Structure formats: C-alpha cells, structure tokens
Amino acid sequence: MSYNVYISEESVDGDSDGPLAGRTVAVKDNISTEGVRTTCGSAMLEDYVPPYDATVVERLKDAGATVSGKTNMDEFGMGTTNETSAFGPVENPVAEGRVPGGSSGGSAAAVAAGEADLALGSDTGGSVRCPAAFCGVVGIKPTYGLVSRYGLVAYANSLEQIGPFAPTVEEAAELLEVIAGPDEHDATTRDAREEGTDYDFAAAADGDVEGLEIGVPTELLDGADEGVVETFWDAIAELEAQGASYHEVDLPSLEHAVEAYYVIAMSEASSNLARFDGVRYGQSGGYEGNWNESFAKAREEGFGEEVKRRVLLGTYALSAGYHDKYYKKAQDARAWVKQDFDEALDDADVLASPTMPIPPMKLGESLDDPMKMYLADCNTTPVNLANLPAISVPAGETDEGPVGLQLIGPAFGEKTIIRAGSALA
Ligand code: GLN
Fold first, then answer.
1. Closest alpha carbon to 236 in 62, 353, 357, 92
2. Do residues 228 and 361 touch, judged by C-beta distance below 8 A?
3. Nearest Cα to 121, choosing from 84, 166, 89?
4. Domain count, the chain
5. Max alpha carbon distance in the chain (Å)?
6. 128, 231, 330, 342: which has the highest count of C-beta atoms within 10 A?
7. 401-408 and 350-354: which strand pairing?
8. Nearest CA, atom 10, ligand 1
C-alpha cells in the first residue's frame, strides 16, 4: 500500500559517499529540485519543473543521500491534515482511516511506512511536528535562521523553516546536521557557532536528562483530549524517572497565539502567492486582451479553496483601513509570545506540551470546518511566532492513534531538545 505519500516518485542519486550515503530521503514537494517537478500540492504548479536545487537538496546530494521522491502536502503548506492537496489525501500508515497530519503529511507518512529512511518537511506553524506526532515518528522544527530557505517555495516566510523527519531522534539529528548552516543565498541564515553553539547535533542524542528542568505551560494542556493529556504525563513521568524534573508555568500570551499566527501567516501568504499570475509559473490564464482577466482566470483555476480563502483574508488584513486593527495587533501578540517564552526558558531548559491537542482526525472530516482545523494548531504555532526550535517525539498511543510530545528550547538550543528527546525515542 502506498498511502499516496508521493506526488512524484522520481529518485535522484547523490554523491557516492558522505554521511548519508546509502540512505533515502523523501523531500516535501515545496522544496525545489532541479529537473524534478515541484508542485507544492497545487494544480497551479502541476507541471512546474524548477531549474535549480534548493540549498538543502544540494546539501543532501553532497552528503551522499538519494532523494526518493517528492512528497504529498497540503496545498502550499496550508493545512493540518494533508487534505487540501490537489493530489488527494495521504492515509496515515499507522492509524487506519485517519489523516497523517499536515502540511508535510507525505514526508512523515513516507518515514512511518518505511518508504524512505528519512524525510524533509517545512514547518510554518507546525507542519513538521504535527505529522510527526500523528504518524509516530520524530520531527524537528529548527530555530529560525538555522536552515536555509533558499529554494523553499514561500508560504509565510517570517515563520517557516525546513526540518527533518526520522524514526529516531539520533537520525533526525544527523539529517539536521547535513542541512543546517549559513547560506549566502538566504540572508536570514545565521551561523550557530556565532550563537554560542555548534553543529554536533547527532552526538547530542545521548539520552542524558539527568538534572534537566522542564517547564510545562498549563495553557497548552487546556482543552486537550483526555487520552492525549494522559499520554503526555506518562512521557513526563518517564523523563522524571531518568533524572529530569518539571514545574508548571503560566504563559498568558499563548491563548492569543493561534489567532496572531493566522493573521500573520495569511498576510504573508497573500503577498508571497501574488507571484502566481499564470505568466511566470504554472497554470496559464491565457490572454484575450485584458491582463487582469487573465491573472484572475489562472488563479481561479489554479488555486484550491483553502488557498483562496487565505489570500482573500490576508489581503483584507493588510488593507489600508484594517492594517492596524489586525496585522499590527498580531505583530504585538507575536512579540508578547516571544517574551513569555524567553522568560519561561530562563527557569527551564526546555518547555514541554503535547504536540497536538488531539489524536489524528478521521479522513474526510476536517475540511468543512476550517476554524476547528486552525485551532488544532494551538500548541505548535506559538513556537514559530517566537522563532524557537522544537522537536516532536513519539510519546505513546491512544485508541485513535499516536501522540507526540513537543519539547521547545531556547534559540539555537537544538542540542538541548535533541538530548531531551533522545531519552524517549
Ligand atoms: N496548519 C498550519 C497552517 O495551515 C501550519 C502549516 C505549516 O506549518 N505549513 O498554516
């Protein structure tokens, strides 16, 4: 069974040696691959073949990896269940009849189903961590600026990072080691060595949590499914048994994070997706004497419903009369979230929560209620607003599927979350 994980199953060999030699890596279909179709899960780019590799793909090839194919995803990364893809949904390989999570659902499912050893996804508001949690694998969202976004098709560029999936924390760390580091093509990248750390991520996966102090933001447990909360506390107990301790913290800003996230993400999306006018990329709107009509036709035909909703809402939030009311307020909330996290991380090495407040949804049940789908991102989106690193590791299962434990670290604290996560997976 293929679970519909790939949009294009075309393999590309890398160099013959290197740290990833002999391993296959599935790549999300919003990451550019030279000569291999890159659709972003959209009819708009159904036939688009990029002329260049994203920096992360170049690094995979240099490291000896074989790219096994381009994975299914929510259209342009907009979704939490992988059901907004123009190429059909992905089925969760470990929870029959349920979604794999999104938007990098194909990448997580490829690893969970053994169709690739490792995978890359992108995380704008949870799109690596959510599918990792739902498919029972490990996923890391790096600190903003650790990994180059050159060649990643932008959805909301101030929020997103490319991140690894793997069956274990150590393997995810190995893949992160390969893709991380500054890039002259992405001016937002930083050198970890100038941030007081280094790139020895795999070595940090030593499972040593002796003396680790964990903060548990109570807001991220409120309203979560009972089975999820139980599994979460079991995982914390397991870390305690290995020498960690925990305390609860209140972070009042987190209640506003998901709202702020959606205003910012949609605003940036409305601007980033303006380039799809049917002239330069993908689906053409033809030309019958009026360019406005031709742009409108390309966008009407090429974009799916969720993408249209977000472009419209984002345009609205940025428009002259509403900018201060929505966009500016959201930016204020973003600053508040960042400040709350920074303070909490003064008294804790990592913060912990369930990655998702719910188990994987049943296939076909989410698209009718976008608001409900957005609210499922309440635990992951605050981390993107604050540009921090976070990992999702398998914590256990309920009857409805796997549960992920999310561990959040300080900026460039990847080694800390890798070390803590490796005590469990
Ligand atoms: N579910 C969130 C959204 O739809 C996050 C998506 C992502 O991280 N790409 O925006």
1. 353
2. no
3. 166
4. 1
5. 72
6. 128
7. antiparallel
8. 78
CA atoms within 13 A on the CB side of 183: 21
Q: What is the DSSP letter of 283?
A: S
Residues of the domain holding 358: 6-253+334-422
Q: For each successive 10 residues of the chain (425 residues), what is the average pLDDT? A: 91 91 97 98 97 98 97 98 98 98 98 98 98 98 98 98 98 98 98 97 98 98 96 98 98 97 98 94 90 95 97 95 93 98 98 98 95 96 98 98 98 98 96
In-domain check, residue 23: yes
What is residue 95's predicted lDDT score, i.e. its pLDDT? 98
- Looking up residue 376, the CATH number of its domain turns out to be 3.90.1300.10
Cβ of 265 below 6 Å from ligand 1? yes
Distances (CA, A) of 346 to 218, 340, 382, 406: 17, 10, 17, 18
**What CA–CA distances, in Å, run from 4 to 89, 196, 250, 253?**
7, 42, 41, 38
301 occurs within a structural domain: no
The residues annotated as belonging to the active site are 28, 103, 127
Assess if residue 12 is contained within a domain: yes
- Residue among 417, 418, 411, 368 at smallest CA distance from 146: 411
Nearest residue to 405 (alpha-carbon basis) of 394, 416, 415: 394
Backbone conformation region of residue 384, classed left if phi is above 0, alpha if psi is from -120 to 50, else beta: alpha
305 phi, psi to nearest 5 deg: -65, -45
Confidence at residue 1, expressed as pLDDT on a 0 to 100 scale: 56
127 lines ligand 1 (CB under 6 A): yes
Q: Which of 155, 165, 262 to mutate to test the pocket of ligand 1 (most atoms within 8 A of CB)?
A: 155
Residues composing the chain: 425
Residues 6 or more apart whose CB falls under 8 angstroms from that of 219 comprise 250, 251, 252, 254, 255
127 CA → ligand 1 middle, Å: 5
State the pLDDT at residue 320: 87
377 lines ligand 1 (CB under 6 A): yes
